[in-house]
Amino acid sequence: MESVDVKGASLPKLGFGTFELPGATARARVAEALETGYRHIDTAQMYGNESDVGAGIRDSGLDRGNIWLTTKVWVDRFRDGDLQRSAEESLERLGTDYLDLLLLHWPNPDVPLAETIAALNDVRRRGLARHIGVSNFTVALVREAVSHSDAPLVTDQVEYHPRLSQAPVLTELRRQGMALTAYCPLAKGRMFRDETVTAIAERHGKHPAQVILRWHYQQPGVVAIPRSSKAEHVRANFDIFDFELSDDEMRRISGLAREDGRIINPASLAPDWDNAA
């Protein structure tokens, strides 16, 4: 599997997300994902499953050094001191002594970003996380975060799929030398019956989900982290390395973006999103 190499980090381009996977389900799916071949696992403090994700990693029997592990700090822990303590608590729950990547989960305008980024840098200096980044940040917020950070920010994790163009953010991240990590990369299955996607899938003998993940995979600087509660889907989502989309197919899938394509838009957390040009 290819990786996105940015600012000293090497993020596997296909990872396994764990949002809304509870308890034993999270543990089992993480172990199965790693057994299938995934080497990138994504979780968050807010998911409430860090302990189970850590148990799944141990169940896999893989060496910790062969796994890229990401978690995210929730917005109520963004103050200096509290953020560092929250990172220590995440490490304890995950059963590891370091994170590969620690992200700010959403912007929090109630805490100065300079303070939060300084605390995030301190986590990295202390070796609790090898790399740091952000999530759900707009172009303006990415620029501000970068301006406050002594250490490189390696990624912005955002909703991204064929129905939602992230052209402004993706352009800015490439300019900054950062990766885009796509959550909700399959648009919650809402495109599995799209005529363009199904036609391309039939041509390649693949499921629409595999075509969409291949679309992500072929984009420079893009990482995708699909999640599933079903073991067969975990395996199927990894089966995207035996075919390639043509330039025309890539363009046709990208052309499916629409203005109302965003799915994740919580009123209490969402910033003023960038509109695609």
The helix/strand class is alpha/beta
Cα-based radius of gyration, to the nearest Å: 18 Å
What's the CATH class, please? Alpha Beta
Number of domains: 1
Q: CATH H-level name... which superfamily?
A: NADP-dependent oxidoreductase domain
The share of residues in helices is: 25-40%
Residue stretches low in confidence (pLDDT < 50, at least 5 long) are none
- Our measurement of the CA-to-CA distance between the termini, rounded to an integer number of angstroms, reads 32 Å
- Main beta-sheet strand count, sense and barrel state: 8 strands, parallel
Description of the molecule:
With 277 residues, the protein is α/β, with parallel strands linked by helices. It has a single domain, classed as NADP-dependent oxidoreductase domain (TIM Barrel), CATH 3.20.20. Helix content is 39%, strand content 15%. Strands 3-4-5-6-7-8-9-10 form an 8-stranded parallel beta sheet. The protein has a two-stranded antiparallel ribbon with strand order 1-2. The longest helix has 14 residues. It starts with a strand and ends in a 23-residue tail after the last helix.
